[in-house]
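hey so u asked for the seq, here:
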Amino acid sequence: MIISLASCGLLFLRWGRLGNGVLYHDCFIRVLMNSEDFLNVIERTPLVSIDILLKNQLGEILLGRRTNRPAKDFWFVPGGRIRKNETLHAAMSRISSVELGVELQIDNSKLIGAYDHIYTDNFLGKSGVSTHYVALGYEVNFPLECPLSFDAQHSEVRWWPLSLLLESDLVHDNTKAYFENKK
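ran it, structure tokens below
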């Protein structure tokens, strides 16, 4: 039996019996905030995120063209918000799995710093509400021959030579900031 109570944040609950007759249940609970509540959070507090600076053996950086706000239509490094009570280790694993199709370990990355990403818009496009991220930039060396898969947050992805990344108006300034001292 599957029960869906999305308005309460319960995505599914499945009950059944094992072969030996023992009752079991699977439950995937994700408390979702509605858009207006999340917009109120964005209006009042910064968000904390991990950005993944994936670098191949040629020194190129992986960027994706964003399909969502903020920074829509700009080329940006993969990354995402850290959830409440989520460790940095768990966040890196989740974000990389979702955005890249491969689970990266934070122990195999190098923290290059914390950066303020302040945008004049927000995920809903509501006027007058800015978005502020405190983004933790982690550099990860990644071989070109390893396959990656990407989520719907990017319309396209590609490896960028560092010089081209820094010169392009298509690459967001917040992405360039990670690399400006590495010329």
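The first strand starts at residue 2 and ends at 5. Residues 88-100 form the longest helix (13 residues).
lmk if thats what u needed
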